[in-house]
Amino acid sequence: MTPETYVDILNDALYLVILLVSIIIMPSLVVGLAVSIFQAATSINEQTLSFLPRLIVTLLALIYGGHWITQTLMDYITALFLSIPTLVS
C-alpha cells in the first residue's frame, strides 16, 4: 500500500464524517440563529428558550435523517471492506 492510498482513505472518511455531522448540526444552527435574533429583538434572556428548540430540531434531524446516515455509513464501510483485497495485493 502506498501513502497515497492511505491519504485517499482518510480523505474519504473525513468527507463522510463532515457530511454526516452537517446533516445534524446545520438545522440546529439555523434554529439557534433564529432564536438568538428573536431574543435580541425582545430582550428575553431565558436559557431554555435557546436550548429547547435546538434540542427538538436536532432530535427531529436524527429521526428523519437517521436512516440515510446509517445507510451511507454502511455503504462506506462495505466499500472499504470490499476494497481490502485490492489494497493488500
TrEMBL record:
Pfam families: Bac_export_3. It is a multi-pass membrane protein. Belongs to the FliQ/MopD/SpaQ family. It comes from the Bacteria. The gene is fliQ. Keywords: Bacterial flagellum, Cell membrane, Cell projection, Cilium, Flagellum, Membrane, Transmembrane, Transmembrane helix. The chain crosses the membrane at residues 13-39, 51-70. This is Flagellar biosynthetic protein FliQ. Role in flagellar biosynthesis. It is found in: Cell membrane; Bacterial flagellum basal body. InterPro entries: Bac_export_3, FliQ. The keyword Transmembrane applies. The keyword Transport does not apply. Its main location: membrane. PANTHER family: FLAGELLAR BIOSYNTHETIC PROTEIN FLIQ.
